[in-house]
Amino acid sequence: MEYILTADGSKKIDSYCIENLKIPSAVLMERAAYSVYEKLFVKECMGADNFKNASFTFIAGVGNNGGDALCLARIMFQKKFNVNVYIAGDMNKLSTDNKLQAEILENIGVKIENIDTEEKVTDIKFGNVIVDGIFGISLNREVKGLYKKVIEKINESKKYVIALDVPSGLNATSGSVCGESVKADITFTFGYIKSGLILCKGKDYSGKIIKTDIGFDKKALDNLILTENTVYMGITKDDLKNKLPKRLETGNKGSYGKLKIIAGSEKMSGAAYLSSFAAMKSGIGMAYVYTHKNNLSILKTLIPEGIIDDYENEFEINESDVVLIGPGLSVNEKSKELVEKVLDKKCFAVIDADGINIIAKYNLQKKLHEKTVITPHIKEMERLKNSGNKNEKNVEYIRENILKVAIEFAKEYNCVVVLKDSTTVISDRDSTYINLSGNSGMASAGSGDVLAGILGAMLIQTLDVKNAAVLSAFIHGLAGDLKAMELSKESLMASDIIYGLSDVFKIKK
Do 196 and 181 contact (CB within 8 A), yes or no? Predict the structure, then answer.
């Protein structure tokens, strides 16, 4: 299990260590700097050979993130690396620990250049590698003036950039850019991953994210978990063995569930195929697929293992069923009738794509319940939030506040929300997860249909809406990651993700 912290959560961890455990802040700073030095020359970064003759330019701010940079500069200077050091801002405003690090540097013979006006920005001379320590996790205002100029100069340099904890200018909680942000090649983040590194625009600015151990005591995290909305969870590959549904050697097709899938309109057979095929490749016993009559022939050919029928024909949905509804369904009176039929039965249900659009158009949110999982992407969530002409939230707001929006919607309507963006957030009334798998190659048509099929399969095998949602998002992303390694992100298609599922399920063996 991986813990992911907001800026506020990170500050509370620091404070607990300093105030309750009596670990001096200077000690934490020293640990942070050494943790970066220890990781810097391993293969997952640039590797020792690439750094051997490099010159390092450190650009520090006046706060404690600047102190981290100065501390690292001192360590590297003492290890005989070529370093030059700049402090951007008013030196009279140095934090206590930053001032200490500056004094130590000067005492051992390292000259510090002060960049305190916009005119002096042109004086900065970059080495092969830039270490960014201007702003840390506390930044919550727009970057302007001197700091904006410095960040622009860093980005224009095209040098290799290392960010400490978070890239300067990136909101550590939301991942939004505060006017201007450093674009790092690699970000060393201290103790725990910060949510802003992986949400919103975070991935584009953070580069490769490497978590370093600076010795935070587990008591600090345990104390923080009691604080609402400051720490989130994400499962990892190591968790799969314990979380994937177990298969009985004596089981039969009935042991693994009979999923009902309502998908595909007159011109959208592909969505029905992808969701159904993904479900069948994810461990279910049987799939009953109800679709538009025009799709019957092609689906019977493509999915001979499924039971395919016309959704215009009468079919039963019972409270004990598990249903996936929505992929490629279209928004019309018939599809509205089908969605209401599923919601009114209060069965376990995954509601995806046009199922969500129907809920938004006809204002059916109050029919959601604790056994439903909805899987909106950002635009679909905008429709849900603004149905009934409320004009409440736009796409940009939702993207920058994805955690808040998912949590609030899950609590208001007592359902599980899988809010999809470049990083997916999963929330119910009690807890929130951030998905740690997936890649940009999965941003293609049909990928959401595949996720819906996996989720239907996990739900029927576990009958646990939250865990099924968390597990499915990770499986979907991991299958995409494995196939992207084989095929490339550019060549990845939704159907490839399905063929990556077998490699994911082998992990538990």
Answer: no
